[in-house]
Amino acid sequence: MEPLTVLGVFVGQPRVIGVGGDGRPVTSAIGKERVTEPSVAVGPRTIAGDAQADPTVHGGPDKVVYAYPAPHYAHWRAAGFALDVGGLGENVAVVGAAEHDVRIGDVWRWGDALLQVSQPRSPCYKLALHVGRRGAGREMVRTGRSGWYLRVLSPGIAPTAGVIERIGSDPTEPTVAEAFAAVVGPGPGRDDLVAARVRGSAHLAAQWRAALAR
Fold this sequence. Notes:
Blueprint: E1 4-11, E2 15-19, E3 25-28, E4 33-34, E5 39-42, E6 65-69, H1 72-78, E7 92-95, E8 107-110, E9 113-120, H2 125-131, H3 136-143, E10 148-154, E11 156-159, E12 162-168, H4 176-183, H5 192-199, H6 206-213
Parallel strand pairs: 6-7
Antiparallel strand pairs: 1-4, 1-7, 1-12, 2-3, 5-11, 6-10, 8-9, 8-12, 9-10
């Protein structure tokens, strides 16, 4: 398989990003800063320096690393969103793969660490607060440019630029695009046969499986 390229690694800590409809402050770690060191420690539950504001929804063993295709940012900017690489809360910005060709269960080698694709990202209201514009979540659903989460199979030290290699992929597993559409959006996942394949995935995160069941 062709190696992918890491354009940047980003981490963040919880902070107030706005006010919710109930008038209360909303806290999130979606705002992340680029890691400037040449490498970063990837642990079984988090990347060094990263955290989640609400661990009941974010984080956990199936959502340790959030990867996002860097070329998508050109489409966001064309749609009127003032976003640059790292602006959607990803931990790793990559080139060389997208939702339609990354499959649930794909195994990636990133430095010494081994990762496995577990589910797409589902947008929530905090995305709009973070980017400062309504409709961000709807745009992600409309385009299917969700990115994907990975679990950590083996912790290690990973480079913050350079190569990340996809070393395993099962063609019977659904793509990230199919899994995303099966739960939150239009597209190939709405086909009954594809949805059944998403449900039957051996590596799909329990949270996404529960959302599909609902």
